[in-house]
Amino acid sequence: MDRLFGIETEYGIILDQEAATDPVTESVALIKCYRPDDPTPRWDYSHEDPYRDARGFRADKLQEHPDEKEEQKQDRRHRMSFEEMKSDRILHNGARLYNDHAHPEYSTPECLGLFDLVAHDKAGERILLQCARRRSEELGTDVLLYKNNTDFRGHSYGCHDNYLMARRVPFDYVRASLIPFNVTRQVFAGAGKVGIETEAGLKDAARYQLSQRSDFFSVEASVDTMHRRPLVNTRDEPHADRSKYRRLHGIVGDANMSEYATALKMGTTALVLDCIEQRVVPASLALADPIQAIKDISHDATYAWPVTLANGAASDAIAVQREYLALAQTHASARDADTEWVLQEWERTLAALARDPMELVGDLDWVTKKWLLTAFAEEEGVEWGDPWLRSLDLEYHNIDLDNGLFYELQKDGAVRRLVEETAVMAAVDTPPGDTRAYVRGVAMERYGGQVQSAQWDSLTFGVNGSEKTLSLHPLVEAPELLRHREALDASTDLPSFLAAIGCD
Fold first, then answer.
1. Which of 330, 327, 349, 323 is CA-nearest to residue 264?
2. Is 404 helix (H, G, I), strand (E, B) or coil?
3. Which residues contact 198 (CB under 8 A, 6 or more apart)?
4. How many whole angstroms separate alpha carbon 440 and alpha carbon 453?
5. What are the extents of the domains in the chain?
6. For 52-61, 125-134, 148-157, 245-254, which range has the lowest pLDDT when averaged over its residues?
7. Which of 149, 203, 477, 502 is most buried as measured by Cβ atoms within 10 A of its Cβ?
8. Could you read off the pLDDT of 269-303 as tens digits, one per residue?
């Protein structure tokens, strides 16, 4: 494909056999288990501004979950500094690992290749599993991690997909063009969930739905991510040259265990952004009530998924997705192997969903999980409201290769793999070679002791008593990336590398 993209995933954390877990303490302790002897330079937050809105203003405040004030009181009892609470780590593969609102969060390095991204997303699971095993040894009890989006008590935590795109496109057009796609994407990208849930807690325990996140959206667009969540997030932090680029920060998606679902989710969205940049998405796709539609689609057990368009016409989620597919087939800007794979599998998946979603067992998370839970419920004679099924729902997302239900299916050959395990394990330590993550990761591995601070778009080194900051903005462009990579590969020490790239 031809744009940088990446995935941020917050993980659920509990201690086995413990009545209560302090998630902040355990999240921080877990993160510190990543290469505990490595240098830990400061993450530089000075250039991050979560209040800056892509619509041209700066928000006065961010909406908070109703429990946030009590959680802030608990945070003060931890007597940790802000830096210790976040516990940021810059990883050798160019990724970032840190504590975000009491959840360990792994942000993949920037990728260009679709299957590179899938491998790095899975590498995040393996890295966190290594950390959990080290922490379990320290405690003498198992630390369990779940790649899901709900605690079934009214709290939802995110899996955010990010894409670099052209700033020249007016944001209002981006928002309007993206909402119908975001609302209907869950038919193949949903992770599946037992129960209907709101921020007040579990509302209906006996229903199965497509998405873990759809219950938690209440506005069409805003800068918020924790409360009153939007279908399109307007945070304006490009982590690149602001005059050229914006970063689309998508918060509407679920965390996927399935490699296939991850690839389809990211690949289709990237192609839709191609169409948005070319201004070819018609206004006729607009939905009459997208906030209600995202919930209705997720809850619809008939799998007809009807929607009403803003012009009053009746349609359905598959038909809307087919409109976006047709646009991508005509206007996708890259015609490489990744793009052709996405177009082919997008069409195949929509056709199977229209016939019988159960054809996609082993491909899509929500389908595979429903098949698994249905078989269990029938065998054990339990109803869908039984807490046993919610427990199994959670265990589907357990990232332990020996105990997680998804990985039991994988060992049995019941789910489709897109990348070899050797590629996943290589991604644990190795950054993608065709993005600026290579410079970040390799510089951290070689010269980490001299990295004083870092952020997505810069590294600041301490050299002979002075600071030298390397901007990664230009490395979005291939020629500059190649120049920096060649200099880094040829360098024998930090001063020679900085001199070769002209960082004085």
1. 349
2. coil
3. 154, 215, 216
4. 11
5. 5-426, 436-500
6. 52-61
7. 149
8. 999 999 999 999 999 999 999 999 999 999 999 99
Bridge partners of residue 309, in order along the sequence = 287
Determine what percent of the chain falls in helix, strand and coil, rounding each to the nearest 5: 45, 20, 35
From the list 407, 432, 282, 259, the residue with the least C-alpha distance to 341 is 259
Q: What is the mean pLDDT of residues 98-105?
A: 91
Q: What contacts 490, CB < 8 A, 6 or more positions away?
A: 500
Q: What angle do CA 113, 114, 120 make, to 5 degrees?
A: 85
Question: Residue ranges of the alpha helices (H) in 227-364?
Answer: 259-277, 290-299, 317-331, 337-355
Between CA 87 and CA 32 the distance in angstroms is 7
Instruction: Name residues whose C-beta falls within 8 Å of residue 408's C-beta, 6 or more positions apart in sequence.
Output: none
Give the pLDDT mean for 39-65: 84
pLDDT score of 52 more than 80: yes
CA distance to 157, 257, 383, 484, per residue, from 395 (Å): 17, 11, 18, 44
Question: Which residue matches tokens 């056709």?
Answer: 351
User: What stretch of H or E contains 311?
Assistant: none
317-331 vs 337-355: helix axis angle to the nearest 10?
160
Residue 329: how many CA atoms within 13 Å on its side-chain side?
Answer: 11
C-beta of residue 223 within 8 angstroms of C-beta of residue 234: yes
Q: Is the dihedral of CA 127, 128, 132, 135 positive or negative?
A: positive
In this structure, which topology does domain 5-426 adopt according to CATH?
A: Creatine Kinase; Chain A, domain 2 (3.30.590)
CA distance 179 to 174: 9
Instruction: Return the amino acid letter for 340.
Output: E
d(CA 126, CA 424): 8
Mean pLDDT of the residues in the chain: 93
| Residue 179, φ and ψ in degrees, nearest 5 | -60, -50
Give the integer Cα–Cα distance in Å for 307 and 293.
6
Please give the Cα distance from 145 to 156 (Å, whole number): 15
Could you say which of 38, 49, 100, 386 is catalytic? 100
Token look-up 């809850």 returns: 299
Alpha-carbon span 134 to 30, nearest angstrom: 8
Contact in structure between 245 and 238 (CB atoms under 8 Å): yes
400 included as an active-site residue: no
DSSP 116-180: HHHHHHHHHHHHHHHHHHHHHHHHTS-EEEE--SB-SSS-B--EEEEEEEETTS-HHHHHHHHHH
